[in-house]
Amino acid sequence: MIIVMKSSATTAQVDHVVARVKSLGFDTHLSVGEERTIIGIIGDERPVDDDAFSLMEGVEKTVRVLTKYKLASRDFHPQNTIVHIGTVAIGGNQVVALAGPCAIESESQIMAAAQAVKKAGASVIRAGAYKPRTSPYSFQGLGEEGLKLLAQARLATELPVVTEVMSSEQVDIVAKYTDAFQIGTRNMQNYNLLCAVGSTDKPVILKRGMMSKLEELLMSAEYILSRGNDQVILCERGIRTFETATRNTLDLSAVPVLKQLSHLPVIVDPSHAAGDWHYVPSLSLAAIAVGADGLLIEVHPDPEHALSDGAQSLTPERFSTLMNNVRAVAAAVGREVA
Ligand code: PEP
Ligand code: MN
User: Fold this and answer.
1) Which ligand is nearest to the CA of 307?
2) pTM exceeds 0.90
3) What SS3 class is residue 261?
4) N or C: which end of the chain has fewer CB within 10 A?
């Protein structure tokens, strides 16, 4: 249940309602908007009587939130959340490009990729040091050595970086080098990991499980939010369907649906959805047109020799061309590129 306070409610009235909720054994979550404050009741509030609150001073109304997720829900938090990765704001009017290779392979490779994506207009560098590969015989990433190289690229470009964390044991080491965590599709329901990153103060890009419903994605976001970390970005990266012409099927309808259900920023990863670089530009433009707050794109200086996901990686030149087109589509829908 949420308690919507009147716009004229005083701080003392808000405090009084919060104290009442707590006296019943629940936690509260306060959303202080420009217009009014909304108090969320956290916990199984089925036995709570709405009248207990609707008659209190300063209360406008009480609303039962029917979704299983609360903190991720727009009912709880009507205004858009803006997440900051370094100084880059995601979820506002500017659309943001996060780009880089699938994996960090060497100093020269990550440096070339980072400089190229910066030049083309990316605001955040992405690259993996711990790689969740389908085969145990495939390149697994450089681990901490890779994180150090990523930190070097960060220093050289002055751009913030994001990298995947695969287990709760890795959270501390990854946190040492990164500006934001990425939770991959295979780990969307790794609840220990979600709680571990939820206990940090670094932003989290949460990718949709390849076989997960949007409600399940939002429940996973709820795990992170409920641990106190409110910096969560949702990422649509394609889901498994009967269609095999692309690696996954990019569910573009996820964007407006998630935007309606939640206040969290939504970005799209067309690279892992398509699995083929030819489709990445058009899917990127469509994602911006449908309301995405950003794009997560794989770019490699030499895709032919990439140690992972070369087929879906754009060359720096193709990425640069794409960014020009992204600017045009963003402008057409009343936004701009950061
Ligand atoms: C990645 O971003 O490199 C990655 C492994 O993505 P996903 O988890 O979406 O497959
Ligand atoms: Mn990849």
Assistant:
1) 2
2) yes
3) helix
4) N
